[in-house]
Amino acid sequence: MTSSDSHRPLRILIGCDTYSPDVNGAARFAERLAAGLVERGHEVHVMAPGRRYRRTPAAVETIEGQPVMLHRPPSVRWPPHDWLRFVWPWRAKHYARKVVDAVRPDVIHIQSHFVIGRGLSRVARKRGIPMIATNHVMAENILDFTVMPPLMDKLVMKGLWADVTHTLGMARAVTTPTRRAADFLEGTSGIRGVIPISCGIDRSHYRPDPAPRAEHRILFVGRLTSEKRVDVTLRAIKRLAPTLDVHFDIVGGGDQLKHLEQLTEGLGLQDRVTFLGRIDDAQLVETYRRASVFVISSIAELQSIATLEAMASGLPIIAADAVALPHLVQHGENGYLFEPDNDQQLAARITDVLTAPHEEWQRMQRASLDGAAVHDITRTLDTFEALYRDEPLPE
Length: 395
What we know:
Residues 23-203 form the Glycosyltransferase subfamily 4-like N-terminal domain. The chain is α/β, with parallel strands linked by helices and 395 residues long. Helix content is 40%, strand content 17%.
């Protein structure tokens, strides 16, 4: 690429199977990536499932204050899931061809290897368009929604992972949010050279508060699905000494909401747990700000944007020692790790944080803020721009 080419704006097509108004890490990353690229002067188009099964013309949608052109093919809802929609797989290539013909992108960046990403990858290969692929998915993220017997799940997963290898193998570069996630993908799919690139966050958006908290508030933010293991946190809270007088705020919705509400009642925690549902950005920033500690018991995180947001808010983190969470939580530094599904150990870790002297709590806060600095969205955008242009990656 010539020097003049390396500075010209690009026309970028991002393919997603989940996007706004969906609330999950993969969707949030795609939104921030698209908005950040537009802010840098690129022309960005996003192909994502429509909100209903009908054809709609491409239209500009405002994402994080930036205009992004959305192409939303007809989609249907997956009944076992509370919000997931998908394009019929046998129509994916047809819609992909139409969008690629209309956009004529310089580069395509797929956010999954499933329906839309799979269709775009075939079209990109046929047209000779450079493609970057990012993986946000683990098997645990989808097994709960197959409504098939366990043996059938295993057979389907085997077939899916074979297709993952084929689809991602078409990309010029394959990325995933963390080194552990990259190791997982390489070990599962056989793809080599996976590049870890943080999803990134805008740290200036969050408002850490170093002052002592007036009350002990535990916070979780995320989808309420089984792999998040919010039930483990509820059982841990039941074990805490009553003198700690804790309150647990749960932000997010999902298919496990009613089950968790019933469990809360069964444990007698109704007065100590609040299900806040989905809240807007301003409310979320304030909820992070007033919390004492962020707890995530999930066993299937390839990064966890919510954990990054909590770190940028200056919160100590207590996380399950699973997949990529140890990449964010340095045990004894910005918080603690605990054995997955061990609510007794989790209760002990929560107690450690909430009974620590304020100077020790502030030390963990500073460690979280330092850890979040590595994941600034500016670095993420710099790296993806280099990949799109086939240039050396920044350190």
